[in-house]
Every structure is written in structure tokens, then in C-alpha cells.
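Supplementary Note 3. Input sequence used for the single-chain structure prediction.
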Amino acid sequence: MVLEVARLDVIPGRELEFQRSFAQAQTIISSMPGYISHELKRCVEKPSRYLLLVTWERLEDHTVGFRGSPQYQEWKRLLHHFYDPFPEVEHYEDLDKA
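The predicted structure, written as C-alpha cells, is reproduced below.
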């Protein structure tokens, strides 16, 4: 399994709108092959910052499968205009699996 960690900095003042759009968008990601689970966390100190944690079966399920899919275009349409700067995304694996 691979954990995708995305730091999402939302334009201040647009947090509630982002959260409503994310509620729609999460149905897209959760329907993708290789998807296991996800969580969206909001920063206490910086309320315009969120962490998106998505567990995938394999790295390629995210980087190739999801990002190369038509569904990703809808994901982008719903969410990408909220970010400034564009999110930093990294992938992590358990140490016992490395």
C-alpha cells in the first residue's frame, strides 16, 4: 500500500466553498481502481490549509490510473481553482514494505 499525502493551501475565504466541492469530488476518487481510503484534515493553526491522505494499493493507481483518467479532469474542475500555491504531493510506504 502507498499513502498519498497532499498539502492543500486553499485561498483564504474560500474554505467552505472548497469543502463543499470536496464533498462532491471525493466520490470520484473513491470510485477509482486501487483506491482504499481517504481522509481530509484541516489545520488548526492555519485554517486555510488541509491535508489530503489517500491510501492506494499501488503508486501507479494514483500516478497513472487516477491522474490519467477522464475522472481526473472532473476532479481538477471541481478543486484545482481553490489552491494557492498548487499542492505539494508525496507518496509514502510502510517501512516493513520498503
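The radius of gyration is 13 Å. Residues 3 and 55 are 5 Å apart (CA to CA).
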